Amino acid sequence: MAQTPTPRRRQKLAELISDDIKRWIATEGMTEGDRLPNEKTLMELYGCAKGTVRESLKILEVEGLITLKTGPGGGAILHTPSMEPASRMLRNFLHFRSLDGHQVYQLRRLLEVELAVSVVGRLSAEELESLASNIGACECSHPSDEDQRRQRFLELEFHNLLARACPNPLLAFMCRFLNDMLRDLVVVKKAYIPERKQFDAANHRYHRELVEAFRDEDRERVRLLMDEHMRDAEAHMSALEAEMADQMLISQETLFDADQDSPLLRLVSQSR
């Protein structure tokens, strides 16, 4: 027996208007700082009430596409949205889907290589210096957990610096999004504990060699190095996740052995 399809939610008029305004912005080639028509003009154009127009503009503001200013000279002004709101929403979507490092690297192995190759010959002297400075910041001693966490973030920032120079905005967004996913995994799984000197050394070496290859504009060398770097990083991430899982198992077994009369265990026994 065929299942009855779930009816789609009908869009509110304010949502339809906001979608149409976005299409109009794209068609007209409008840029940051341009103004949308005022409320009265939009009301006449769409034949709707002031409240509906304001709701549609609020949708665009929440999405980061416009800034609403009050008073003389105010109105809806176009604003180039940052990637953070979109990245955060996608990460929220994946939050309850048990994402692990292997799944992230399944994409990252491919995309980071293409991104690195795309910026060969495009990096300015200032951008190359930023990459070198990032490596220098990573190579300091890091005795505390907070220092180690900072180092993981700096290593990801090296790749974000490359993404900012990427001529393909979709590729740049996807790579920065994956870096955000890894940053979340670092925090949630405390991937900076225990200290991993071998992983640190490998990251530093690959980053140094990549900067040299970028300076030489050696496209094939960049491709080879980034491919090796991603495979090495995935291996370290897999080993870390396995180690963390073992530690959790040992901790649970120790807890059970130490307190067989715990309230939780009594509840489990009573339910059998």
UniProtKB/TrEMBL annotation:
Pfam families: FCD, GntR. PANTHER family: TRANSCRIPTIONAL REGULATOR, GNTR FAMILY, UXU OPERON TRANSCRIPTIONAL REGULATOR. This is FCD domain-containing protein. Residues 11-81 form the HTH gntR-type domain. Keywords: DNA-binding, Transcription, Transcription regulation. The keyword Phosphoprotein does not apply. PROSITE patterns: HTH_GNTR. InterPro entries: GntR_C, TF_FadR/GntR_C, Tscrpt_reg_HTH_GntR, WH-like_DNA-bd_sf, WH_DNA-bd_sf. The keyword Transcription applies. It comes from the Bacteria.
